[in-house]
């Protein structure tokens, strides 16, 4: 798990989603503990030994570094979603630009958006590193797998770390496509019947994948 967090930290850093020391990743270890990145470390330079173990009350169990200041956001997601095994928070530039412009990724522009993530809503403004971030997310967590954070960044979560990572990657891709489509003119959003057909196709795809 430590090696996996280090791998996906580096990937997100290389994709420009975690500049400076920003961004944090975590995985659920068992019913009592999660493994999470520390504060103040570049995700490119992160080492397996830097990671921190905390319990679900936020108490640090092991690790010599201090836990990320965004711990409360991770805890809120695990508390509200039993199915979630991993959480990724980052500052991808296009998705963050949408979050700074007060816009979620609500318009279904490309088929991929329907087939993968669905709507990515924008949560209300909250000061980073405070309990307000978790509070701003609570109403969205049960219904969505990725959320934009106003004037801040994005968070995604899933059944594994690769799953949460791929959702973050998709959030940024969808934001990039939406930005370019808007620059090219008036984007043509998918129609309701087209979305329904895609949802049927998605259901079939997921059944075959099992
Ligand atoms: Zn952040």
From TrEMBL:
Single Gene Ontology BP annotation: pentose catabolic process
Keyword Metal-binding: yes
Residue ranges of domain Class II aldolase/adducin N-terminal in the record: 3-179
Taxonomic superkingdom: Bacteria
An annotated GO cellular component: cytosol
Keyword annotations of the record: Lyase, Metal-binding
Stored Pfam families: Aldolase_II (PF00596)
Metal-binding in keyword set: yes
UniProt cross-references to InterPro entries, sorted A to Z: Aldolase_class_II_sugar_metab, Aldolase_II/adducin_N, Aldolase_II/adducin_N_sf
Molecular function via GO: aldehyde-lyase activity; metal ion binding
Name listed for the protein in its UniProt record: Class II aldolase/adducin family protein
């Amino acid at each position: 798990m430590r090696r996996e967090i280090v791998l996906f930290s580096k990937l997100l850093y290389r994709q420009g989603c975690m500049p400076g020391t920003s961004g944090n990743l975590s995985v659920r270890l068992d019913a009592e503990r999660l493994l999470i990145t520390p504060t103040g470390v570049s995700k490119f330079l992160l080492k397996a030994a830097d990671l921190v173990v905390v319990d679900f009350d936020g108490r640090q169990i092991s690790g010599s570094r201090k836990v990320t200041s965004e711990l409360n956001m991770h805890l809120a997601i695990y508390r509200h979603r039993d199915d979630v095994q991993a959480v990724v928070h980052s500052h991808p530039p296009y998705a963050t630009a949408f979050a700074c412009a007060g816009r979620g990724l609500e318009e279904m522009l490309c088929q991929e958006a329907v087939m993968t993530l669905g709507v990515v809503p924008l949560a209300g403004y909250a000061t980073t590193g405070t309990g307000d971030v978790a509070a701003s997310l609570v109403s969205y967590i049960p219904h969505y797998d990725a959320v934009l954070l106003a004037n801040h960044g994005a968070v995604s979560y899933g059944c594994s770390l690769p799953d949460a990572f791929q959702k973050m990657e998709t959030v940024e891709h969808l934001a990039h496509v939406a930005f370019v489509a808007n620059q090219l003119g008036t984007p043509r959003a998918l129609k309701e019947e087209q979305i329904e057909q895609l949802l049927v196709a998605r259901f079939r795809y997921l059944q075959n994948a099992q």
